[in-house]
Each structure stands twice: as C-alpha cells, then as structure tokens.
Amino acid sequence: MKNKMLANILYGKNEPLLFKETNIPIYKPDEVLIQLHASAFNRRDYWIQQGQYAGLRYPVIPGSDGSGLITQIGESVAPILKGKAVIINPGFFWGENEKAQSPKTFKILGMPDNGTFAEYVSVPAAYVYPKPPHLTHIQAAALPLAGVTAYRALFTRAALLSGEKLLITGVGGGVALTALQFAIAVGAEVWVTSSSQEKITKACELGAKGGVSYKEPDWAEKLKKSSGEFDVILDSAGGEGFVELLNLAAYGGRISIYGGTIGTIPALSPQKIFWKQLSILGSTMGTQSDFQEMVHFVNKFRIIPIVENTLPLSEAETGMKIIKNTNQTGKIVLDHQQ
Ligand SMILES: NC(=O)c1ccc[n+]([C@@H]2O[C@H](COP(=O)([O-])OP(=O)(O)OC[C@H]3O[C@@H](n4cnc5c(N)ncnc54)[C@H](OP(=O)(O)O)[C@@H]3O)[C@@H](O)[C@H]2O)c1
Q1: Closest ligand 1 atom, CA of 47?
Q2: pLDDT averaged per 10 residues in sequence order, the chain, 338 residues
Q3: Residue whose CA is closest, atom 13 of ligand 1?
Q4: Domains of the chain by residue range
Q5: How many Å lie between the centroid of ligand 1 and the Cα of residue 169?
Q6: Is any ligand 1 atom within 6 A of the Cβ of residue 238?
Q7: Which CATH superfamily is domain 148-282 in?
Q8: Whether the predicted model's global pTM rises above the 0.85 cut
Q9: Distance (Å, whole) CA 54 – CA 120
Q10: Is 319 in the pocket of ligand 1 (CB under 6 A)?
Q11: H or E segment to which residue 141 belongs
Q12: Measured from the CB, is residue 171 less than 6 Å from ligand 1?
C-alpha cells in the first residue's frame, strides 16, 4: 500500500489551506483507515482557521465530517468492517455522563487530531457507522456533525414533540437546516428566521410554515403576529437577538442553544425566565447513543441532507471562503473523487 496522500493542511492562524502531499495516517490497533470519498465543512473549520478555537495545534488537517470506505483495520478491529461504506461520529470520548461530555477526554475530529479534508483518515473503529444506504457519499458526508448536533439539541435536550411549535433562528446554517428537516419529519410546526428571503422561501418549500428576516428591526414582533409563541426555540446565534427569544417563547418553553455565532448575549430579564418557567438548554454535539439514534432517524424518514455546493478536494480553501460569507443554504461538500 502507498504511504503518501494528498491533504489540505493548515499551517497556522489565518493561513490559507495548502493542498499538499503528506503521509497516510498510521492507524492504531483499535482504529480503522478510511479512504474518504467525500468530506464536508462546518463553521468550526472556519473558526479553527481564524484561530478562534480552544486547543489549537498546527499543522493540522481540518475536517470533522466524512464518508468513505474502510480500507485497513487495526489488529483488534472486527475483520467484517473491512471494505464497508461508513460515516464517522466526529465527537470522540464523550465520557460516562450522558448529560454532558467530559472536558478532559472529549475531542472533535479535525482539531487537534487530523481530520477529513484528506484522501485518508484514521479513527477509532467505535466511531464508524454504516453509511445510510439511501445516501450517496456526498450526501452522507454532509450529515454527521450537523445531524448529531441538531438531533441532541432538538430531541435529547428540548424533547420536541409532534405538533409542537418550533422556531429555528438562522435557518441557512448547516445545523439549522438539518434541524428543520428533522422537525418536519416528526410533525412539528416550524417557523424560521434568516438573513435572506430566499432562504426563508427555501425553508417553506421544505415544510416550514413561515419566517421573517432577522435583519428587520421589528422582526420578533412581526413573527409573533403570524406565529404566536413557541414551545421550542433552537438558536446558534446568541447576541442581541437572543433577548427577543424570551418574548417569543411560550410559558414553559424550552430554548436550546448550540452555538454563539454573533457572540455575547446582553442583559436578560430574570423575571421573564422564571415567570414564564422557561428552560434554557445548552447542547453540544452528542453521545454515541445520540449519534446512533440520529442515523436510525435519518434511515427511517429517508432524510437527505441538503448540499448546496460540491468542490474538488483540492479546493478546500474556496470552501472556507464560502463558509465565511454565510451565503450558502446547505452544506459545502468536498468530492474526493472529482
Ligand atoms: N455546540 C456544538 O456542538 C456545535 C455544533 C455545530 C455548530 N456549532 C456552532 O453553531 C453555529 C452554527 O454552526 P453551523 O455549522 O450550522 O454554521 P453555518 O452553516 O456557517 O451557519 C451559520 C448561520 O448563522 C446564521 N446567523 C448569522 N447571524 C445571525 C443572527 N444575527 N441571528 C440568527 N442567525 C444568524 C446564518 O443564518 P442565515 O444564513 O439564515 O442568515 C448562518 O447561515 C456556529 O457558531 C458553530 O460554531 C456548535
């Protein structure tokens, strides 16, 4: 077997990704070597390039999402896995407590360990799952990180039920769009916000009931007039807009947060939180059970992740620029066979 591969390597903060030859990873006894057919971007990859992430280490091959074929297995891995088409749960070593990951052990593929923007990646065998058979490698690569984050935030944390009213803010985001698909599948009534009317229209085509632009100063009032209050709100923006979410939540509402794209949330009214009996729930990626349930869910409802753009592996730097501008509605995927 050859020992060199092509990969997108990040050599430091604010550097462009360089597409270069490097060594194929050496897999440990409990690991598998995967020949990746596709990988996908998350905002995390952009944060890492910007140096805005904990535990940075360079050089690194970024990329948390991937789909491909197992080509080699470590000596303690079941031989049956060889040749299987798989996706990777990128959240490794969660720990014993289902309620939260252990900060001592938890890590995400693509930093500090090398990730999927390469021809090959090695990962512990415990974190590979059969690729959903109804998905191509390109579609499957778009699923893992967004899928497990959306699944845990919506179902494990906020316990969203069929018939409940849900608001998803910034629906153009990768996790947000996946959450929209999941929530529609279980029969929730979904409303959205976005920076663009085009993205709201697309969300409505996917089954959302309606939406408003968060760029309008009176967006929350306008939304409340058409939708009423929400049982569940899913947010990854934070910032000033978050204050309005307390007004938009119904009594007993649950607000699930998995990101802070805009940054710090200004002063919140404790009265609104306790009087309305609100639950504010933090959520990060998911356990192995969340991931397994998410894959089962995707297979059951035959969910197809939305891919906006496909680029060759050699053009990962272009993908970073697309992520930076947040113009996309759906995932940016690298096709490693192009
Ligand atoms: N905790 C976790 O496990 C976890 C997992 C994944 C992601 N995250 C975090 O969650 C965030 C989203 O990740 P992603 O990969 O889905 O990102 P993404 O695909 O790049 O999407 C970001 C989206 O944020 C929305 N947005 C921007 N400004 C907004 C505002 N003022 N109000 C509401 N929405 C706004 C935009 O929506 P429109 O395009 O509709 O305007 C944009 O598409 C990031 O901060 C990421 O780091 C956390």
Answers
A1: 47
A2: 94 96 97 98 95 90 98 97 97 98 97 97 98 98 98 98 98 96 98 96 97 97 98 98 97 98 94 98 98 98 96 97 85 96
A3: 43
A4: 4-143+305-335, 148-282
A5: 9
A6: no
A7: Medium-chain alcohol dehydrogenases, catalytic domain (3.90.180.10)
A8: yes
A9: 25
A10: no
A11: helix 137-141
A12: yes
